[in-house]
C-alpha cells in the first residue's frame, strides 16, 4: 500500500524506506501494545474492585507484582511480533540486520515506554479510570513516533518530538543502526544514546 501511494506521489519507495517502515512498525507495535496493556490492566482491576486487595493483601510488594505481570505480557507481545516480522520479511523480501547494538537500543526504547506506562498506571490507582489518557497517549505514539514513515524531513519539530517521546528517538536510532550502519561510538558521540 505504501509503495503504491509513494509511486502515485512521485516518491521512490525503495528497499531502504521499506526497511525503515518495517523497523518503525514492529517497534511501534511492541511498544504501543506494552504501553497500553499496563494502564489497561490497572484500570480493569480498579473497575472489578480487585485493585485494593492486590495493593493491600499481596505477599509481595505491588511494584514486584506489576513488574512481573508486565514482563510476562511483554514477552508474549515480543514473540507475537517476532512471528509477524518473519511473515513481513518473507512477504516483502526485506531483511532486518539485527545486531547487539540494535537489541540494546530496542530494550532502552521499551524501558522508556514502560516507564510512561507505569506513570499512567499510577494515575489508575488514584483516579481508577485512565482509558482516555492511555488512548490519547497511544494515538500520539502512532502519530508522532515516525513509525511508518521517517519524520526526519520535519527538522526542528522532529528534533523536539524525538527528545520528548522515547519511542520516536528509539525508532530513529534503530533505523540509523540497522540501515545506515551507525556504531556505538557514533550514537554516543552525537548524544542520541544519552538522551534515549
Would you kindly provide a written description of the structure presented here, covering whatever features stand out?
The mean pLDDT is 77. This protein has 196 residues and is mainly alpha-helical. The two termini are 31 Å apart. The protein has helices at 2-8, 15-48, 51-57, 62-92, 100-127, 131-144, 156-164, 166-178, 184-189, 192-195.
Short synopsis of the structure:
By secondary structure, the chain is mostly helical. The chain contains ten helices and no strands.
> Could you tell me the mean pLDDT?
77
Largest sheet: none
> Total strand count, please?
0
Uncertain ranges: none
Beta-strand percentage range: under 5%
Count of separate DSSP helical elements:
10
Q: How would you classify the quaternary structure?
A: single chain
Q: What percent of residues adopt helix (DSSP H or I)? A: over 70%
How would you sum up the global shape? elongated
- Measured between the Cα atoms of the first and last residue, the distance is 31 Å
How are the secondary structure elements laid out?
Layout: H1 2-8, H2 15-48, H3 51-57, H4 62-92, H5 100-127, H6 131-144, H7 156-164, H8 166-178, H9 184-189, H10 192-195
Amino acid at each position: 500500500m505504501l509503495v503504491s501511494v509513494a509511486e502515485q506521489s512521485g516518491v521512490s519507495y525503495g528497499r531502504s524506506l521499506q526497511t525503515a517502515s518495517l523497523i518503525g512498525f514492529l517497534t511501534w507495535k511492541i511498544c504501543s501494545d506494552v504501553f497500553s496493556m499496563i494502564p489497561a490492566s490497572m484500570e480493569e482491576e480498579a473497575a472489578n474492585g480487585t485493585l485494593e486487595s492486590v495493593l493491600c493483601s499481596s505477599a509481595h510488594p505491588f511494584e514486584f507484582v506489576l513488574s512481573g505481570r508486565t514482563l510476562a505480557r511483554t514477552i508474549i507481545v515480543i514473540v507475537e511480533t517476532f512471528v509477524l516480522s518473519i511473515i513481513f520479511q518473507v512477504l516483502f523480501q526485506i531483511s532486518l540486520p539485527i545486531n547487539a547494538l540494535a537489541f540494546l537500543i530496542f530494550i532502552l526504547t521499551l524501558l522508556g515506554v514502560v516507564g510512561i506506562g507505569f506513570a499512567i498506571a499510577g494515575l489508575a490507582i488514584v483516579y481508577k479510570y485512565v482509558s482516555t489518557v492511555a488512548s490519547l497517549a497511544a494515538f500520539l505514539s502512532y502519530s508522532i513516533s515516525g513509525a511508518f514513515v521517517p519524520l526526519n524531513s520535519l527538522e526542528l519539530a522532529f528534533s523536539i518530538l524525538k527528545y520528548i517521546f522515547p519511542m520516536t528517538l528509539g525508532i530513529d536510532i534503530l533505523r540509523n543502526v540497522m540501515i545506515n550502519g551507525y556504531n556505538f561510538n557514533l550514537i554516543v558521540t552525537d548524544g542520541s544514546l544519552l538522551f534515549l
